[in-house]
Amino acid sequence: GSAYDRRVAAELAGGTPLEPGLLPIDGCGLPLLDVWSRRHEAFGRAMLAEDRQAELVVVHLGTEFMAVENLEAVSRLEEELEAVRQWRREQGPAGLELELSGSAAVGRDILLGAAESIRYTELFTVVLVLAILLAVYRSPLMALVPLLTIAVAQVVSLGVVAALTQVHELPGMEWWQFHVFKTTKIFVVVILFGGGTDYCLFLIARYREELKHERRKRQALRGALSAVGDALAASALTTILGLAMMAFADFGKFRYSGPVIGLSLLITLAACVTLAPALLAALGGWVFWPQKPERGPSQIAQSFWQQVARWIVRRPGAILVTSFLLMAIPAWYGWHSADNVTYDLLSELSPGKPSRRGAALHRRHFAVGDSGPIVVLAHRPGAKFLEDDGRLSFAELGAISNLTLDLRKIEGVHSVRSLAEPLGDYPSRLSPFSTAGIRKVTLQNHRVTKSIYLTHDPGVPVTRLEVVLDYDPFSLEAVEVLNDIDRRLRILNLETDSFWSGTEFAYTGTTAAIRDLSRVTRSDYFRIQMLVVLAVFAVLWLVLRRTLVCLYMILTVLVSFYVTIGLTEAFFAWAYAGDFYGL
């Protein structure tokens, strides 16, 4: 780019001024490679919108879009933009908009959103559980026992998980691989508070029942624990083993998160049958204040549940059929919509996030897919894209031009950038003596063009093409276009008279990553679903030893699952209307 662009990039990177070209800075503070603007000697024309109302400044980073290193890099760039915005407000032209977009900006906002979600999830989970406990028990100390038990279990769980990630540092344990993800903590918090509260409710409810028959509180507590211990263990084990089945997933976030949550729930169970009874014993009669120890649910609640029990016992068949009919429609909807999954990470961010604002501004002036083109890498054994003197091979350049035209004709493709068409212009045969022809040939032979569209290793014949789509790179429509591109290239690969016969094609970029994510998570979904059902059935059979009863219980859980999916899908489709793309 220009000297000014390189100087700004060097200041951000904490290094010396950048030389022209895509050259990494060793030891720099930020993962910056280069900065392009409309003053770039080769690609400056592509930085200006066709309506000439907007221009791009492209900052090339040497990291993936969800890399943690992007947090600092994008934040520093945001500070630079804010300084320019401040100048604009004070003395700049009116109507000038400056926004940050691109995959790294989206990744930064996702990481920050995850951290924000963790904070709010912890706060609202604690508040909600506390409100429920106070409404149920109407005793502050009684509500405090589950909260304190779960809080201790959470701290211990997170500490154990953190320690497990460091086991590979021990001598002889280099083979150990255990990772945690930032979003895993959200599920740990929710499931620990949900499951732990259930376990404590079971224990305390039985404790109150025992107090009606046993005046000695310690004896009543011992009886309550022995009565519900097996039920608590069985209830927890079904969930723990179900989560453990996620270890068989291919997707890392599933493979590691499931066992982490299961281990945390196991620690919570241990706390609920040790720490919670100890707290109840230590607090003695004060734990029920201001209620009486023997007092159970309110008279209204007792009457309600007694009436429900009488209805069910009196007409079990009618209740079963009626319940099933009421659940059949949402269960059917859940069955058919269970595969309605979105991987559009951008649309999941709130409209006020910087990357969402930047994407909206970008789409007003540039192709929507320009922010994340599909990168096609073509490895053609035996090809020689460069002659010995460094000039482009005429035959190979012609083959790349034809391939560019083939890809450009696919529906949904906006433009294709390649060694033959570096700016993504529609492939055309220009006279080498015309102004446009001279400019095109000059750009094809430019060192920056070669560094982008040809491999840096002359012994590996690989060329690169960038396919810009008419769709958002995160969308499922973009994935479908990628599938069409893949099918077209497979046909070229099989055509014996084609230059690209025997070529190995590979894909990278945002859309390729979304397609891979979709494929692996769909595969994992069905595998985990089957393994979880088998694991839960095994636990139930070991506890009950009645096959038909276990099958009936599994069936009720599956129906409940699909009812939940159906109602959730329907609710969010109604609440978000046109902005809802799937769960």
Reconstruct the topology from this structure.
Blueprint: H1 3-13, E1 32-36, E2 58-61, H2 69-91, H3 103-137, H4 140-164, H5 184-213, H6 217-244, H7 252-283, H8 299-314, H9 316-337, H10 345-348, H11 354-365, E3 374-379, H12 394-408, E4 413-417, H13 435-444, H14 447-453, E5 462-469, H15 476-494, E6 504-508, H16 510-544, H17 547-576
Antiparallel strand pairs: 1-2, 3-5, 3-6, 4-5
Helix pairs in contact: 2-3, 3-4, 3-5, 4-5, 4-7, 5-6, 5-7, 6-7, 6-16, 9-17, 15-16, 16-17
Features:
single chain; 17 helices; 583 residues; mainly alpha; four-stranded antiparallel sheet; two-stranded antiparallel sheet
Provide a compact summary of the structure.
The protein has 583 residues and is mainly alpha-helical. 61% of the residues lie in helices and 6% in strands.
Q: Could you say which structural class the secondary elements and strand pairing correspond to?
A: mainly alpha
Q: Report the β-strand fraction as a percent range.
A: 5-15%
Distance between the termini: 43 Å
Major sheet summary line: 4 strands, antiparallel
Low-pLDDT runs of 5+ residues are 13-27
Number of strands: 6
* Share of residues in helices: 55-70%
Shape: elongated
What is the count of DSSP helices, taking H or I runs of 4+ residues? 17
Q: On the 0-100 scale, what is the average pLDDT? A: 85
Reading side by side through the largest sheet, how are the strands ordered?
A: 4-5-3-6
As a whole number of angstroms, the C-alpha radius of gyration is 31 Å
The H-and-E topology, N to C, reads as HEEHHHHHHHHHHEHEHHEHEHH
